[in-house]
Amino acid sequence: MDLDGFGFAGDDIRAVWDDAAATSEWPGPPVWVHGDLHPANVVVADGTLAGIVDFGALFAGDPAWDLGAAWLLLPEGGASRFFDSYAQADEATVRRARGLAAMKSLFLMLMGQNGDRGLPGGKPNWGPAGRSALDRVLKGL
């Protein structure tokens, strides 16, 4: 994927990923994780989370997989407020979550690009969601 066309520097994304990869592993016991939280897998009614769908990636593991949704689902500044209130995420978990959010943002952008090109399985409306999420990821908390 050509990131220049999206207005993002590959080095900035790589720095987020490298920071996440440099953290310690999740030290706790495995927890149930949806594994694929992004805008297309949540149901919102009247501005409130009403449900979660598509449990095909469900597994037990590092909660950072789902905590990355703070950047994917919340508006700018929302991740910071979320992690300030969610006392169970240490710094390493937040850093891993941010790296996973970057990866998922790129996935959304790729699916959007595939939709724009008319490729099978592509979803044109996912691209803007991915670009917006990646912008929030790169701004940090």
List the helices and strands and how they pair.
Layout (H helix, E strand, L loop, with lengths): L9 H12 L9 E3 L8 E4 L2 E5 L6 E3 L2 H4 L1 H5 L4 H8 L5 H26 L9 H14 L2
Antiparallel strand pairs: 1-4, 2-3
Helix pairs in contact: 1-5, 5-6
What does it look like?
Pfam families: APH. It comes from Plantactinospora soyae. The chain is mainly α. It has one domain (4-27, 63-139). The protein has helices spanning 10-21, 64-67, 69-73, 78-85, 91-116, 126-139; strands at 31-33, 42-45, 48-52, 59-61. Strands 1-4 form a two-stranded antiparallel ribbon. A two-stranded antiparallel sheet has the order 2-3. Helix 1 (10-21) runs antiparallel to helix 5 and helix 5 runs antiparallel to helix 6. It is globular.
Shape: globular
Gyration radius (Cα, Å) is 15 Å
Strand content: 5-15%
Largest sheet: 2 strands, antiparallel
Q: N-to-C SSE series?
A: HEEEEHHHHH
Strand-pairing-aware structural class: mainly alpha
Strand order, main sheet: write it out.
Answer: 1-4
Give a quick set of tags describing it.
mainly alpha; about 50% helix; two-stranded antiparallel sheet; two-stranded antiparallel ribbon; 4 strands; 6 helices; kinase activity; about 140 residues; transferase
What is this entry, summarized?
With 141 residues, the protein is mainly α. The chain has one domain.
